[in-house]
Amino acid sequence: MDVHGGGNLRRVAVVGGGIAGSLVAKSLQFFAHITLIDPKEYLEIPYGSLRSMVEPCFAERMLINHSHYFSNGRLITSPAVGVTESQVLVADGRNVDFDFVVVATGHHDPSLPITRTHRLHQYTAENERIRRAESILIIGGGPTGIELAGEITTEFPDKAITLVHDGPRVLEFMGPKASEKALRWLISKRVNVKLEQTIDVNDMWDGNKSFRSSKGEIIIADCHFVCTGKAVASSWLQKSILKKSLDTNGRLMVDAYLRVKGQHNIFAIGDITDIRESKQGESAKRQAKVAAKNLKMLMVGKEGKMERYVARTPTTAMVSLGRKQAVAQFSITTISGILPAFIKSRDLFVGNTRKKLGLHPTLLD
Length: 365
What we know:
By secondary structure, the chain is of the alpha/beta class. 26% of the residues lie in helices and 21% in strands. Residues 11-282 form the FAD/NAD(P)-binding domain.
C-alpha cells in the first residue's frame, strides 16, 4: 500500500517519535505532508521515566499521545523496517513515499508497549515492585542508575539499595568532583555502592533474588533494575540504502546540516547520529530545530540559507538526587544540594518539553 501526499506540499517521513522526531513533526505539520512513523502511539519524555517509577502519577504528564501535538499529519503506529531512495518500508506492510526523510529512532527498547494506557500500567507495576521490595539492586552507575537510586531512596528511605558499577567512579561522564559529591550523597543515604564490579545481566531473570558479582560477592535483592546503556536503534538500516552511512557504533554519520552523509534529502537527528556531544534532551531539541529549518529551506529552494549545526561541549551537566537534591557541574565550579535541584529536580524539564510541543506544562490535555 502506498501513502501519497497531494497538492503542492512536499512529503516528509519522520521515523521515530522521541523528543527529536516529535519536535520536527510538530514544526513541519503545517508546512508539508508529514507522516510520523513510530512503534508507539505516544511520546515518552525520557528524563521523566525514573520519577514515574516511584511516583506513577508523574507519568501522566510525560507520556503524551502523538495526536495531542501532531494534529495535521498521518501517524503510522508500526516500526520502520527499511528505507529506499523513495520510500520508507514499514512493518505493517505499508510503503511511505517521501521527498524527504528524518531518521530519529534513538535507542532500541523492545519493552515499550504500543499504547499510553499500557505504559501507565507498566509504571504502576514497577512502583508496586519497589514498594513490595525490602532490598533493591541497581546495575549501572551512570546518570540513569544514580538518578534511580536517588528517586527510590528519597521516596522510600527504608529500602536497602545496592548499586553496582563497572567503573572506578560513578557518573564518569562528569568530572571527579561531581562523582565524589554524588558518591558521598549516596553513602549518606545508606546506599551500598560497589565500584569496579559487574553482574552478568544475561544470567538474570524475573524473580531472581541472588546475584553474584564479578568479584564473587553475593548480593541479595528482592528486585533489580538494569541501568546500563541501550543499543542504538539502527539495525533496521543494515540492509537499506543507508547501510554504508552507519559508523562502527551503528550511528548515522551526518554533515554540518544534519543530512546523512552522501544523501541530499535524508536527515538524521538525536541519539542515532554520530555527532560528538552529550546525548541529552537539550541536544535533541536543538538538532530538531535546525533540521526543521533546513528542511524548510530545501523545500522553498533556498539551500544556501540552511543553518549549520554546531555541537556544544557541555559546560553544564546535572544529575538529580531525588526531588530536593542534585549535583551540577558548571564551567567554573561543581556544586550539589538545593540550588541545582531547583533548576532540574523539581520537574525534570518535563514542563519545558511540553511547552515546546505546544502543550500546557502542568495541565493534562
